[in-house]
């Protein structure tokens, strides 16, 4: 009898302690003064799924001051130093007055705008890989690569071997990959590059006991800089699926090669991230070579966003662009979990008569995020936003174009994670030719899409509607 009594007392004590931990965690979430939508999402999870919710919060929700992870002072110091090295070179000043978005990014992000850039867009991984390998073969001084995913597969090994060959020629090479994005890659893959003289670093390593503080802040950027005058930016990682696609279709993405002074912005982004993990303050003028001749007519600005600063730079820029649109605003994104501000800006633009089109994949690589994305479509269509579902495979492109004058390509998805937690980078363009090129790419993809109508959408099963609505509660946390 005593044993049973002690067992009951012990069980009750464990339950009380656990309940106290859950309640305390809920109060911590409330007192953290984060986004109310996100706060309610955490409270709902902790209330209805206490075990799962507590584990999720321990691993993904702790909001320790982000400055402890990455020094804002160190970031600012590095961002200014390389800029000082090339600021005397001609950043675009004349004609920028009317480009309020460029002025906004310069003020909150320190991003400079450069004219005379050449741009070349790639909409499939094979063409991009060919161009990347060609530029690597031509490298003479240095190569900097930064990717969220750098897989140990045929494509990853092909690029690795090309880098090793250039290292043997005396080219200085630095590679930065995200630790979570490359979780499944055996470290021996990167060690082979290290043994050949290539500097390799992972961004914010996730290892116990520091696992909980870093998993939420991932480096989602995809950048390459070669000799300081050619660079790549966009949504493509280094993996075979970007070339061969998936079992159910192609992997449709967009990357841009930039030649000209805008590469300075790519270089600043890379060296900033390199400093964050290596604490090496690289500011030599050799990484910002003087470019005197125009490589094209594109006006470009490289904008970074991160979870450290006071502002959500790219998210606020998108909102500003939507508010200033006059005729049309086209968007491609693999995921659609917008913040309340972005959702309202999209609806407002559509209600004002702007031709707002949103292109998403009909089938995505992540079931949970895709279901949450679908939950927003009904209210978008009610406001007049046209929804296109891409049917040829997985649409992974992150692109926007508006009014034949503004366009952007980069790593930023239309979701909470990209806007608030990830380190992202986008190239913004302010010239007509670039906008028309991306507009034509969008319209060509539109031919492979299903135009969704409220009538068709409302016919989906009640089961799907319930699943989408329930999963949407997790949207701020995905």
From TrEMBL:
<feature type="active site">
    <location>
        <position position="403"/>
    </location>
</feature>
<feature type="active site">
    <location>
        <position position="227"/>
    </location>
</feature>
<feature type="active site">
    <location>
        <position position="396"/>
    </location>
</feature>
<keyword id="KW-1003">Cell membrane</keyword>
<keyword id="KW-0472">Membrane</keyword>
<comment type="similarity">
    <text>Belongs to the phospholipase D family. Cardiolipin synthase subfamily.</text>
</comment>
<keyword id="KW-0808">Transferase</keyword>
<keyword id="KW-0677">Repeat</keyword>
<keyword id="KW-0812">Transmembrane</keyword>
<feature type="transmembrane region" description="Helical">
    <location>
        <begin position="12"/>
        <end position="30"/>
    </location>
</feature>
<dbReference type="InterPro" id="IPR022924">
    <property type="entry name" value="Cardiolipin_synthase"/>
</dbReference>
<dbReference type="InterPro" id="IPR030874">
    <property type="entry name" value="Cardiolipin_synth_Firmi"/>
</dbReference>
<feature type="active site">
    <location>
        <position position="220"/>
    </location>
</feature>
<protein>
    <recommendedName>
        <fullName>Cardiolipin synthase</fullName>
        <ecNumber>2.7.8.-</ecNumber>
    </recommendedName>
</protein>
<feature type="active site">
    <location>
        <position position="398"/>
    </location>
</feature>
<dbReference type="Pfam" id="PF13091">
    <property type="entry name" value="PLDc_2"/>
</dbReference>
<dbReference type="InterPro" id="IPR027379">
    <property type="entry name" value="CLS_N"/>
</dbReference>
<feature type="transmembrane region" description="Helical">
    <location>
        <begin position="42"/>
        <end position="60"/>
    </location>
</feature>
<keyword id="KW-0443">Lipid metabolism</keyword>
<comment type="function">
    <text>Catalyzes the reversible phosphatidyl group transfer from one phosphatidylglycerol molecule to another to form cardiolipin (CL) (diphosphatidylglycerol) and glycerol.</text>
</comment>
<keyword id="KW-1208">Phospholipid metabolism</keyword>
<dbReference type="Pfam" id="PF13396">
    <property type="entry name" value="PLDc_N"/>
</dbReference>
<feature type="active site">
    <location>
        <position position="222"/>
    </location>
</feature>
<keyword id="KW-0444">Lipid biosynthesis</keyword>
<feature type="domain" description="PLD phosphodiesterase">
    <location>
        <begin position="215"/>
        <end position="242"/>
    </location>
</feature>
<keyword id="KW-0594">Phospholipid biosynthesis</keyword>
<feature type="domain" description="PLD phosphodiesterase">
    <location>
        <begin position="391"/>
        <end position="418"/>
    </location>
</feature>
<dbReference type="InterPro" id="IPR025202">
    <property type="entry name" value="PLD-like_dom"/>
</dbReference>
<dbReference type="InterPro" id="IPR001736">
    <property type="entry name" value="PLipase_D/transphosphatidylase"/>
</dbReference>
<keyword id="KW-1133">Transmembrane helix</keyword>
């Amino acid at each position: 009898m005593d044993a049973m009594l002690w067992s009951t007392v012990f069980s009750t004590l464990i339950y009380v302690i656990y309940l106290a931990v859950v309640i305390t965690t809920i109060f911590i979430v409330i007192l953290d003064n984060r986004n109310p939508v996100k706060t309610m999402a955490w409270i709902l999870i902790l209330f209805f799924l206490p075990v799962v919710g507590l584990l999720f919060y321990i691993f993904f929700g702790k909001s320790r001051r982000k400055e402890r992870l990455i020094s804002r002072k160190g970031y600012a110091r590095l961002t200014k130093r390389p800029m000082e090295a090339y600021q005397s070179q001609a950043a675009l000043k004349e004609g920028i007055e009317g480009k309020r978005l460029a002025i906004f990014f310069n003020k909150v992000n320190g991003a400079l705008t450069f004219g005379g850039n050449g741009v070349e867009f790639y909409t499939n991984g094979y063409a991009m890989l060919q161009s990347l390998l060609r530029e690597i073969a031509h490298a003479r001084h240095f190569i900097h690569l930064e990717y969220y995913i750098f897989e140990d597969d045929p494509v990853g090994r092909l690029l690795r071997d090309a880098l090793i060959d250039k290292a043997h020629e005396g080219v200085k090479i630095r590679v930065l990959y995200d630790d979570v994005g490359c979780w499944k890659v055996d470290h021996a893959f990167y060690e082979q590059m290290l043994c050949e003289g290539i500097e390799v670093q992972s961004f914010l390593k996730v290892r116990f006991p520091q696992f909980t503080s870093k998993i939420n802040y991932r480096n989602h950027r995809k950048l390459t800089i070669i000799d300081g005058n050619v660079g790549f930016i966009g949504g493509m990682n280094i993996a075979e699926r970007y070339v061969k696609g998936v079992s159910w279709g192609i992997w449709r993405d967009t990357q841009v090669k930039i030649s000209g002074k805008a590469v300075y912005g790519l270089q600043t982004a890379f060296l900033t991230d390199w400093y964050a993990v290596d604490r090496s303050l690289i500011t030599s003028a050799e990484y910002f070579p003087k470019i005197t001749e125009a490589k094209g007519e594109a006006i470009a600005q490289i904008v970074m966003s991160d979870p450290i600063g006071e502002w959500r730079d790219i998210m606020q820029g998108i909102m500003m662009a939507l508010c200033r649109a006059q005729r049309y605003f086209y968007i491609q994104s693999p995921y659609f979990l917008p913040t309340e501000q972005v959702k309202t800006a999209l609806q407002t633009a559509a209600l004002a008569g702007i031709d707002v089109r949103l292109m998403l994949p009909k089938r995505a690589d992540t079931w949970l995020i895709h279901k949450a994305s679908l939950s927003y479509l009904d209210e978008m269509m009610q406001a007049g936003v046209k929804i296109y579902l891409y049917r040829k495979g997985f649409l992974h492109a992150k692109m926007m174009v508006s009014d034949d004058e503004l366009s952007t390509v980069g790593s930023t998805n239309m979701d909470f994670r990209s806007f608030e937690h990830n380190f992202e980078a986008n190239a913004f363009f302010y010239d007509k030719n670039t906008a028309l090129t991306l507009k034509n790419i969008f319209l060509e993809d539109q031919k492979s899409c299903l135009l969704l109508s409220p009538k068709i959408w409302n016919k989906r099963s009640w089961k799907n509607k319930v699943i989408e609505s329930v999963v949407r509660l997790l949207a701020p946390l995905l």
